[in-house]
Amino acid sequence: MTETARPANGRSDAKRPGRGKNAGLTIDRVFSTPGVHPYDDVVWERRDVVQTNWKTGETVFEQKAVEFPDFWSVNASTIVTTKYFRGALGSPQREQGLRQLIDRVVHTYRRAGEEHGYFATPADAEVFEHEITWMLLHQYFSFNSPVWFNVGTQSPQQVSACFILSVDDSMDSILNWYREEGFIFKGGSGAGLNLSRIRSSKELLSSGGTASGPVSFMRGADASAGTIKSGGATRRAAKMVVLDVDHPDIEEFIETKASEENKIRALRDAGFDMDLGGKDITSVQYQNANNSVRVNDEFMRAVEDGKPFGLRARSDGSVIETVDARELWGKIAQAAWACADPGIQYDDTINDWHTTPESGRINASNPCSEYMSLDNSSCNLASLNLLKFLGDDDQFDAEKFERAVELIITAMDISICFADFPTEAIGQTTRDYRQLGIGYANLGALLMATGHGYDSDGGRAFAAAVTSLMTGTSYRRSAELAAIVGPYAGYARNAVAHQRVMRKHQAANDSLRTVGTLDTHVQQRATRAWEAVVKLGETNGYRNAQASVLAPTGTIGFMMDCDTTGIEPDFSLVKFKKLVGGGSMQIVNQTIPRALRRMGYATETVEAIVEFIAERGHVIDAPGLKPEHYEVFDTAMGARAIKPMGHVRMMAAAQPFLSGAISKTVNLPETASVEEIADVYLQGWKYGLKALAVYRDNCKVGQPLSDGGKKKDAAPVEAAAAAEPTVVEKIVYRPTRNRLPKSRPSRTTSFSVGGAEGYMTSGSYPDDGLGEVFLKLGKQGSTLAGVMDAFSIAVSIGLQYGVPLETFVQKFTNLKFEPAGLTDDSDIRMAQSIMDYIFRRLALDYLSFDERSELGIYTATERARQVETGSYLPEEDVTEADSLKNDAGDEVDTDLLDEPDVAVAKPAPATARTTSELFESLTGTSVDAPLCLTCGTKMRPSGSCYVCEGCGSTSGCS
């Protein structure tokens, strides 16, 4: 059954009588069909959901014959069944299908909406129910996870995923902080708070003693979070700790996690298990929180100007110490370089966009940094699947998008009427200010499908226009609701400030410079929405103090079958897909052929490009693809990974149109410098972001890249321990050097790269394994010749100590520097540098075909054969084994892929269980992410958190 929605019958306007007449909303049908229940419009099927831990082989979950629409992927149905179905397994109370789940939630929303006067008539309530049901059924949007966990059950009706707490400078308040945080973690949510009210360790207590300072109290909170996690949670406790940059203990705060990271490295080198979830990781502190420094404009200007900056006492605000602002800024960047913490929050920017400043400042955020509001408050989230609004004509249906936003905002506001909260203070603040957090997922897929590069003016303009339309429509509906059920309780005292912020959003929309017809149409509708926001708000006020954020959308992103999460770009061009009939496949993302067709490529060219991507995982040198179109297919990782500032600029494009902030981490390569991180943080301030976090690849020990190597190394240790049970000291493995024999075979290769000539001599062991490399480039005695000699010795010694040649090839191919360009080697016509050429040549000379295939390195003969026959192998080597088979060895019907126009589909490598692992096997590049504690597979980045594609677990709070 197709997912085509009926045309909209008109705008779902709210009647706007005088305040107190409570006429209710009139809802028109946009998505559902009159006289047909949404469930009757799809084909349902029964599936068995079985989930195993791949490391142990243990079945961790099994439920037979669950019911889902036939167009839902296996991954989506598995995650929903394991995460969201309520009732004990095997009991009659256990939910058996998606209908029961959606009905449990939507019927609760409808009843509450009717009870609180949201709808004009019972017929409008029914239309609302059908519209929300249709959109959920067809994966147009999803509520955040707590809604699916709790709504309609006997549990407390908690609907919020994000919480902000507060703590004052008293022991009662500090101990209450521990208690409140613990209850929030127990429920699977996360919380953040600002510790800046607590006196520093440089100030005196009233009794005359010296205060402990906030960092000391962080230890207790960290231990509490770690205990709750080990007590049965499926993910680590998610928390955010913020400290103002003018706090006297700011340097100690900055260095906490970097110092602990050094301890982790020392313990790891001594043989302790320091992986994430390892038995020894609990011996270090501060590992359960994200840390952020709250900087203000005064400090940032001092950094720019190189001026001193005062640290202020908490008791009276007096300056008790003066520091060099640039030196302190450098310490922040150094710590972030070492361990990814602390992040940055820009205080003046945050509070300049604050709609309720008369009720208090915004001091902190939730753990993922997208929700920023008053202390002791919460926010419930929902996210739209943007790709669903892209029609077959490749036009974004802005009208349907508006209608969807209106319905979702209405449902989200209704939820506050019946919601429960972990503390009375949080409940009171949330009911008084009614903060909402609508957002979206699949932006990266939408941009690619429409031919926009993520890091391009067109991509940023389109993203900004969509975000502006979403938030403008949300506040317009909020003003309409205020006319029916009243504005939020705190609106009267904040009316001037709230209206000022609405005008700031409107001005940002007016200054948005569109690039193409696609974003121009969306921005025009956004302009009309913001005009209505300002006009209606002056008359009615607003129902909600906040309306929008951009969350990570980890688990719910998989529920909606999204290719990309939140504001993120596509993770990779090839993805891992489970099949209904069993087994798994490696397929090229379907947004790629759609984008190529939209850009005017012929069918034959599209097929050739997709085939190339299936083999290489990137588009560089793809046959027939114009270089100017490469940027459309740039991804978060891989050969054309988006540069750090590309991520920052995309965040800056969306930020002016959000009530809150954006959950996103800017990834940098392992080679990034401290200065580069400092510049990213500085540019974030200049671009007007509210918060920013960075992650340098491989900067954390406790984020394992794989465990295969670890198991091999552990085997001798375990055997020795079994043989000598009385030995208590750790056995440390040390590599030994395998020197080459006096007489060994070698080959000398002359080469020319970009006009620069040189010679390479490579010597091998008798079994043909490479053991040494000598390079001659430049005149003897020159600096270049000396550097190349030293480099040759380093590589040769590494080879003799057992470093695989594949590792050197992975590290040194694709390095870009001069000289570069044409070579005189028929197998390698172009090289990006001399290093790129040398290690490609070594791979061709000393690695097997299978090893080279994983690295995407082929001879000229192999490439020519691939163009002619579709395979790099000689025809006699292509056997029936290359046919599509599942894990049991049976033929797989590719119709089970449930994806139209699948250009390339083949069995996924046996070592791959998720897209992250498939990416690693295809490109030879590691994905710097932890293993899932539930199912053992490699997670992937999602906003400022990580999400498991296998079971839906997240490392954060959303």
TrEMBL record:
Its EC number is 1.17.4.1. InterPro entries: RdRp_reductase_class-2 (IPR050862), RNR_2_N (IPR013678), RNR_lg_C (IPR000788), RNR_NrdJ/NrdZ (IPR013344), TSCPD_dom (IPR024434). Its cofactor is adenosylcob(III)alamin. Residues 741-845 form the TSCPD domain. Residues 160-695 form the Ribonucleotide reductase large subunit C-terminal domain. Pfam families: Ribonuc_red_2_N, Ribonuc_red_lgC, TSCPD. One of its GO terms (biological process) is DNA biosynthetic process. It catalyses: a 2'-deoxyribonucleoside 5'-diphosphate + [thioredoxin]-disulfide + H2O = a ribonucleoside 5'-diphosphate + [thioredoxin]-dithiol. Keywords: Cobalamin, Cobalt, Disulfide bond, DNA synthesis, Nucleotide-binding, Oxidoreductase. Residues 48-139 form the Ribonucleotide reductase class II vitamin B12-dependent N-terminal domain. GO terms for molecular function: cobalamin binding; cobalt ion binding; nucleotide binding; ribonucleoside-diphosphate reductase activity, thioredoxin disulfide as acceptor. Residues 1-25 are annotated as: Disordered. Belongs to the ribonucleoside diphosphate reductase class-2 family. NCBIfam families: NrdJ_Z, PRK06556.1. Catalyzes the reduction of ribonucleotides to deoxyribonucleotides. May function to provide a pool of deoxyribonucleotide precursors for DNA repair during oxygen limitation and/or for immediate growth after restoration of oxygen. This is Vitamin B12-dependent ribonucleotide reductase. It comes from Friedmanniella luteola. The lineage of its organism: Bacteria, Bacillati, Actinomycetota, Actinomycetes, Propionibacteriales.
